[in-house]
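To make the argument concrete, we let one protein speak, a sequence paired with a row of structure tokens, as a model reads it:
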Amino acid sequence: MDAYHALAQSYDRLTSDVDYQAVVAFYEQILAREGVRPRTAVDLACGTGSVGLILARKGLDVTCVDLSAEMLTIAAQKAQALARPPMFVCQSLDRLCLPRAVDLAVCALDSLDYITDPRQCQAAIRRVYKALNPGGIFIFDVNTPEKLRAMDGQVFLDEDDDVYCVWRGEFDESSNICSYGMDLFQRQGKLWRRSFEEHREYAYSKAQLEGYLKEAGFCRIRAYGDRVFDPPRAGDQRIYLSARKGIRT
């Protein structure tokens, strides 16, 4: 089964430890440093829309994009109470085509790593560039190659009263891809439903991504540690990058 089909219903429970407010707060710090005051934004690979909804509550006109219709359905349900809910679009990032350009593009929680073909990743970054207004900014994070390689052979467990999830990591040096098979047990009344999904992430290096950004036309490319303004260091598990459209210094 493809990623995020069965998982969609339980995703928010299994990621309850993710501090989305802190992620958006770091975006805001980057925006302040860059002098960007966005009015419009796109949340790329938005999942269940947690980041996009925070941006919408802050008054931005938000579009949420994801390839999983199941995840977008959950996101739309969560957005029903908002006065100005995001617009939801089902697209792959390498075919991104928004109805209007935006000031801010974000892609959270290593979602770009899920594009396991580097050529498609390049295409996605070019599409993001085209989707931004002049002076717009793209902010995203990725898992580091060190983290993905360290997942090889590891077994992880997530659970609550209604969900039990076991996943096993395997890193293939020849493909540069970390795969993890996920056995998911979801309570349905008195019974449990078992599903299996395979998730795959490509281990993009900082230099590789910076090259893609430059090739697409981005300027002012910055790399950070995990929600800190220090440069990435050896052993970091996650890094952030930001890049501007049409701003050169």
Observations:
- The mean pLDDT is 95.
- Residues 40 and 61 are 5 Å apart (CA to CA).
- The longest strand covers residues 132-143.
